[in-house]
Amino acid sequence: MQNRKLKWKSDFEKSVIIENFVNRGWIKSQEKEEESTDWNVYWATVWNVRNIFNPKNGFRLNDQQIINHFPNHYELTRKDCMVKNLKRFKREQDKEVLETFNFDFLPTTYIFPGEYSLFVEEFHRNPNQTWIVKPAARSQGKGIFLLRKIQQLKKISGTAITSNMTQLNLASKENYVVSRYIDNPLLIGGKKFDLRMYVLVTNYKPLKVWIYNKGFGRFCNEQYTTDVAEIENMFVHLTNVAIQQYSDKYSQKHGGKYSIDALKLYVESAYGTDALQRMMDDIHNIMLTSLKSVQAVIQNDKHCFEMYGYDILLDSNLKPWLIEINASPSLTTTTPVDKNLKMNLINDVYNIVLPNDDFPDNDQKQQQPTKVGGFTLLYDESLDPNNRKTQKRQSVKIWK
Amino acid sequence: MQQLDNQEILMKLKSQKQFWDIKKKIKQGFSDQQKIGINDIQKFAQSCEIEDQLIKLISHILKKSKKRETLKEDQIEFLNTSKIKWTELLFKNLDIVHQKAKNQEEDDTNTDSKLYIYDEKNLLAFLQTFKQQQPSVLYQNVQFQSNKLLNINIPLKSAQQILDKYQYILLQEELPEEKINKIRKQIENEHLDTELEKIAQTYVPNGERCLLYLKYFEFDHQETVLQQNFAKLQKECSNQLFFDELLEIDGHEISEDTFYFVFQEQILTCLKCFIRDKTIKENIRIQLQNGMKKEHAEFQLPVTGFFPFKNISKYVAPLCYLSTKIHIIYALFKEFFCRYFCFLHAISSEYNSILSLCMQIEEIVSTRSPKLFHHLKVIGCDTLKLIIHQLIYCFVGDMDPPHILTIYDQIIGHDSLEILVILCVGFLNKYKPKLLLAKNYENVQQIFQELREDKFQELVQFAYKQ
């Protein structure tokens, strides 16, 4: 165990990060410049990580440095890249003779502008279908809207849309993803919600994945309805806290956040133990499949780890759907319970990536227990890569 | 008591699955024989315990056929008089509340939120006025002791009896998957309430809890009836009552709770239906208020026979976890209230009543933790004041839902609210070290304002520590 105090740096002025570092007795890096390199632990923005790993900058991380993103994390966390990688992975898996992954968790999605014509065909085949349009690289619900008529795409094209158009010229340079809207979400108390769950990846090759036992459902403040008149009411349809906090009905006390433990109790009590187990197995499948889909493309750097925020929507049949994966899940705390969760989350992350404030070698990583704080090892490809099937089935039972 | 003749008993037997299982067993026992006499059947039944099963089944039917009588009069006349006084007080409170509500309508800036008829502190304060009564010929069998709530001649179990009864909980361990599966099958197949009670005492898997409760209350084959009854009540909710406003205000606290805010609308709907439900009066085990009609009063008691009180929402909330169907949640809430929670608001010498439970808690704490009991008195802090909220609302809001549902299991398991006595004693013992350092009531309040997490098993363990 090292006796020296580690130096930390953070691009976020978030108490859950800073208090964690201070509580560990780590010292803040005194170098003020953004490009400073005198640190051991860096909680960085995705842009700074990109700069650090940009070969033009000539900067190389040393063995005593660890950072919270993989260089090209966007392969998983940009909505268009996630979709592209999942589709590619599915095509590859369809050719495989061995057990295939279950991909039935991604709603039908098209990437604009490239797949506009395919979307139009599908749109006309199902004229009553509602679609959800999202900018590929934005967060917090910004720029999202529901689509029932093709003409609504004027919002993003800047010009009128006609039914015979085969190409879409976007007003801005950014891509969009258009997905089939899940219009039968599971409701509790008549309100829509989605799940935020945390997954830690400490290595991509071989893949090592941890799942956190605490998370929460994010509830809308208005009763859910498929009434067309309410299609633009974001308080009915979008669960982002960044949006719901502006509702008159928003409560500071709970922030619309309902713990995963409470949700599990509800599902088990109201639907049965088997239904809960199936739901959790399906959620684990989403996590593993999505991570596997980018395993070959992510630059696996030993200095990196990443804590993802998975957004998952349950439908009325308790089937989970993948909405998106966040590279920088919000660490803002809205309630005391929320603060407690996120403090413990960050603490447990560092207990895994820097056990005893030490930089573990491969052997030490292998010997790590399968449960650290609130994290449980979901999948470790290095254990037995030839018997991945058996290992995968064993790991998903860890959850209960 | 309604007596059943043999024909009626047979009809009821034939409606029970267990009867047909027994009949099948007997048939299988005599499959080869041509002539079967009554003596043969009797011998066979005795040899393989079928006779016992049949006796249990018939006893169960006879017990269930007894019409549940609502307790109106108490054996102690003093308590009957007190109930009248309490009801009069509540009518006065209702007038005040009504006036406040009117003032708020007229003046938006008036945000006095104390729009409730009574809360647990009011009820405890009323009970504590008993201490101040002067001995009189009116109060036969009543003794007043200044250091405790009340000491009257009602059959109370000794502290040791209660502690012995629930000691088995300390020995409960996490069950292996095999055992849990066995319990699941038992719940699916069992119908007798005595057997369901045994299961509830031991362990109830989350996935089967709703079924166990429905079976225990004999609702498991009555979903259509429950649905229809609830739909009728929902229709009546379109006629607004003044009490609806009080229920909406009451729901505000639940709407801020991180475990129950998602059920806010369901809770309110259940309560609005509840105060319109005419069947409550005949099903409730004990009359809460003296059902007198007040002359010239704008409002009378609701058809339930009692006023809704502060935090009534808390009784509904945990049950919302058990089903997606509101008529099921309502049926369970109604049954729990009519059988058990009603006693927490009734001035009575009955065993489950708030009076009896309070006296039981005082007895245990004063005998097993006399230092704490005395210290609280010295600093001007009443033992009962510290736990009255937890006691009356069964720890809802103080414990997470899984622990609350375990409390509900134990209530059914023993057909009694006694478990609350154990938990309240455990609660006081848990915080005893800090309470002994408190110098005044403000210090005590600070102790309980800190973020805390109380758990069922933990409080039971503390109850047995001295």
Automatic annotation (TrEMBL), chain A:
The keyword Manganese does not apply. Its main location: cytoplasm. This is ATP-grasp domain-containing protein. GO terms for cellular component: ciliary basal body; microtubule. One of its GO terms (molecular function) is tubulin binding. Keywords: ATP-binding, Cell projection, Cilium, Cytoplasm, Cytoskeleton, Ligase, Microtubule, Nucleotide-binding. One of its GO terms (biological process) is microtubule cytoskeleton organization. It comes from Paramecium octaurelia. It holds the Pfam family TTL. Belongs to the tubulin polyglutamylase family. Residues 95-354 form the ATP-grasp domain. It is found in: Cytoplasm, Cytoskeleton, Cilium basal body. InterPro entries: ATP-grasp, TTL/TTLL_fam.
Automatic annotation (TrEMBL), chain B:
It comes from the Eukaryota. It comes from Paramecium octaurelia. InterPro entries: Rab-GAP-TBC_dom (IPR000195), TBC1D19 (IPR042507). Signal peptide: none annotated. Coiled coil: none annotated. Pfam families: RabGAP-TBC. This is Rab-GAP TBC domain-containing protein. Residues 312-436 form the Rab-GAP TBC domain.
